[in-house]
């Protein structure tokens, strides 16, 4: 049996559906025009090809187990917000998350960072975007606003969320648009914040405790881009507290893993002039590997090609307690036309946490492609690197 199932509704989903069925029935019985069996078979196939876009559209995401719950993962939004014409795609994605929250029992939304493409740019050049930084921050803020008071969301900050355009320094407008008190649903999970480089506690580095409907409690960290040495020590100190010994730790940070095209290697250096940076390999050695309860890391950032394989990565390694640590890269920013394309074809990931408390089913889906009868058959990515299970 497939590990995901489609809606089984038989309600006609096209005004042409009944008509097409009648045509098939007539063609199967009539001898007025088509007298040979091969001709009838050919016509049936042509009619089914006509009907296919609508029938595929009936396959909507549902949980494989009604007792599961889900987390939705949004990849880097930067290329959606830097062009005005791309912003409706992000709007469709966040609207879809809200509208399907009950169907998927969605309890959390995570985003991998690079919320904007330029943090402080008042003069877009039209090639790298036609929106000022203020317009980009307003766009991403507007999209998450529809989730305020409805769903908790946890956002990482990426390299493009700092400096002028690309982490020339550690100044970000993030806290101006996403203060801790903004979304009551997120604030209810918040345990602690660490100071940013300016000494202000913000959600750039934050720790959350989440009690799911089933399974172990989650201890979630959102860590800034290339977290400073003191931030890694802060996270390690919290994760090692006895009260969290039986929690499953989750780390969300922008940069950590390379794509499968580069053997899922952990990033060991990057060309940004930031103070006291901790790269992916160092983060593994200093925070994840010594831990006894951090078991899941989620990142974005990487776009090694315009295809799926250049945007995804996955590996598993044991931590100090011998427990599996799943490390997952998911991005989409060059899909849909490259660096200056549509922003990522609307791809997101549905993480279904099964009631056994040990298994996560990962599925990759595009509400954008699912929205049109002509592209609904492309809305699910079914390759093994895009649909798989994580078993802890």
Q: How are the SSEs placed, and which strands pair?
A:
Elements: H1 17-29, H2 37-56, E1 69-74, H3 78-81, H4 87-99, E2 106-111, H5 133-145, E3 153-155, H6 174-177, H7 184-187, E4 190-195, E5 201-210, E6 218-223, H8 229-239, E7 248-253, H9 280-288, E8 294-299, E9 312-318, E10 324-330, E11 348-353, E12 359-365, H10 367-370, E13 380-381, E14 388-391
Parallel strand pairs: 1-2, 2-3, 6-7, 7-8, 8-10
Antiparallel strand pairs: 1-11, 4-5, 5-6, 9-10, 11-12, 12-13, 12-14
Helix pairs in contact: 1-2, 4-5, 8-9
Structure description:
The chain is α/β, with parallel strands linked by helices and 392 residues long. The protein folds into two domains: 1-59; 69-391, 4-Layer Sandwich (Purple Acid Phosphatase, chain A, domain 2). The protein has ten helices and 14 strands. The protein has helices spanning 17-29, 37-56, 78-81, 87-99, 133-145, 174-177, 184-187, 229-239, 280-288, 367-370, and strands spanning 69-74, 106-111, 153-155, 190-195, 201-210, 218-223, 248-253, 294-299, 312-318, 324-330, 348-353, 359-365, 380-381, 388-391. Strands 1, 2, 3, 11, 12, 13 and 14 form a seven-stranded mixed sheet that branches. Strands 4-5-6-7-8-10-9 form a seven-stranded mixed sheet, with helices on one face. Helix 5 links the parallel strand 2 and strand 3 (153-155). Helix 1 runs antiparallel to helix 2 (37-56), helix 4 runs parallel beside helix 5 (133-145) and helix 8 packs parallel to helix 9 (280-288). It starts with 16 loop residues before the first helix and ends with a strand. Residues 1-58 have low confidence and may be disordered.
């Amino acid at each position: 049996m497939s590990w995901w199932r489609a809606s089984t509704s038989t309600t006609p989903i096209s005004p042409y559906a009944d008509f097409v069925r009648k045509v098939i029935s007539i063609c199967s019985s009539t001898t007025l025009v088509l007298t040979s069996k091969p001709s009838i078979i050919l016509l049936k196939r042509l009619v089914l090809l006509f009907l296919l876009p609508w029938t595929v559209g009936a396959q909507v995401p549902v949980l494989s187990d009604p007792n599961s719950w889900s987390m939705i993962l949004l990849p880097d939004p930067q290329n959606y917000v830097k062009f005005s014409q791309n912003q409706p795609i992000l709007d469709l994605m966040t609207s879809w998350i809200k509208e399907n929250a009950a169907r998927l029992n969605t309890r959390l939304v995570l985003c991998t960072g690079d919320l904007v493409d330029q943090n402080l740019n008042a003069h877009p050049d039209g090639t790298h975007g036609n929106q000022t930084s203020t317009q980009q921050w307003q766009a991403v803020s507007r999209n998450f606003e529809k989730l305020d008071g409805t769903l908790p969301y946890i956002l990482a900050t990426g390299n493009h969320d700092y400096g002028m355009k690309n982490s020339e320094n550690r100044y970000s407008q993030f806290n101006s648009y996403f203060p801790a008190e903004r979304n009551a649903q997120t604030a209810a999970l918040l345990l602690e914040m660490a100071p940013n480089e300016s000494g202000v506690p913000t959600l750039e580095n934050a720790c959350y405790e989440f009690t799911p409907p089933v399974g172990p409690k989650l201890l979630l960290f959102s860590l800034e881009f290339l977290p400073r040495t003191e931030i890694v020590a802060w996270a390690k100190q919290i994760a090692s507290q006895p009260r969290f010994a039986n929690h499953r730790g989750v780390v969300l940070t922008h940069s950590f893993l390379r794509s499968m095209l580069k053997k899922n290697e952990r990033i060991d250096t990057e060309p940004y002039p930031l103070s006291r940076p901790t790269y992916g390999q160092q983060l593994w050695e200093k925070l994840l590997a010594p831990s006894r309860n951090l078991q899941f890391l989620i990142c974005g950032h990487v776009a090694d090609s315009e295809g799926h394989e250049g945007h995804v990565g996955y590996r598993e390694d044991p931590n100090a307690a011998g427990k599996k640590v799943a490390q997952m890269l998911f991005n989409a920013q060059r899909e849909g036309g490259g660096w200056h394309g549509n922003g990522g074809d609307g791809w997101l990931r549905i993480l279904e946490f099964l009631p056994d408390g040990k298994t996560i089913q990962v599925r990759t889906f595009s509400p954008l492609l699912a929205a049109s009868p002509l592209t609904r058959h492309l809305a699910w990515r079914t390759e093994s690197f895009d649909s798989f299970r994580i078993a802890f």
